[in-house]
Amino acid sequence: MSRKSLSIKNAAYGFLSQGIIIIGQFTLQTIFIKNLSISYLGANGLFTNLISFLSFAELGIGSAITFSLYKPLALRDYQQVNSVMTLFRRVYQTIGLIIILFGGILSFFVNLFVKKGQSVPHLQLLFVLYLLGAAVSYFFTYTRSLLIANQDGYIDSANKAVFNIIQVCIQACFLIFTHQYIFYLIVNIVINLVSNISITRLAYKKFEFLNLNEANNVPKPVLEIMKRNVVGTV
Questions:
Q1: Sign of the C-alpha dihedral computed for residues 24, 27, 33 and 36 taken in this order
Q2: Residue 29 and residue 203 in contact, taking contact as beta carbons nearer than 8 Å
Q3: Mean per-residue pLDDT for 111-128?
Q4: Its pTM surpasses 0.70
Q5: Helices (H), the chain
Q6: 207's torsion region: left (phi>0), alpha (psi -120 to 50) or beta?
Q7: Over the stretch 197-219, which tens digit does the pLDDT of each residue have?
Q8: How far apart are CA 162 and CA 10, in angstroms?
Q9: Are 93 and 138 in contact (CB under 8 A)?
Q10: Which of 115, 129, 160, 205 can pair with 185 through a Cys bridge, CB separation 3.0 to 4.6 Å?
């Protein structure tokens, strides 16, 4: 398939996937509001904002590293691809651990962000579960960037759409039948984990040359370009 055809295919899948995700979020939000109190909606919004703040640790590194994959993939320089992906994995795993660490510390103060008399039970535990749901992706998501750089983004889009549908259905059922926010968060962790493991297995199957355990260091000129791109993104 030509690069032009792949671009059109990726765009179509991306558009469809984004539409499914938006509809799913709207549906789930409606069910959320009808089955939980307004306090839980506020807590969910608070958690989203706090995680967005913590995610600043990523600093655009993912985009910079993904950009550095285009040339070696086009030239079939698989040794350099392995080197870049090894660095990608190490960086993202470190970022994931940093987010979990600082998020864990922040969890002890999360009650300070809530107005007195409007708190929800076990707020700290709920925030930790939300945190894990967000952080788990950092330990697997680097393979998505390899697919995108190879113009196989449609695989990533299909993965996101399918697992989003599954997640919305399961979370909606738990909200309707249990009215428990904690199950909503646990489902989020499990689905994110399964989705990322699934895309990682697909990537390893597609790129048989991928071996992150025996890769060399990234060449210094490539590393310098990455650093400049990260600074520019920040």
A1: negative
A2: no
A3: 84
A4: yes
A5: 3-35, 38-54, 61-67, 70-74, 78-107, 123-135, 142-149, 153-178, 181-206, 220-233
A6: beta
A7: 999 999 999 998 888 776 678 88
A8: 16
A9: yes
A10: 129
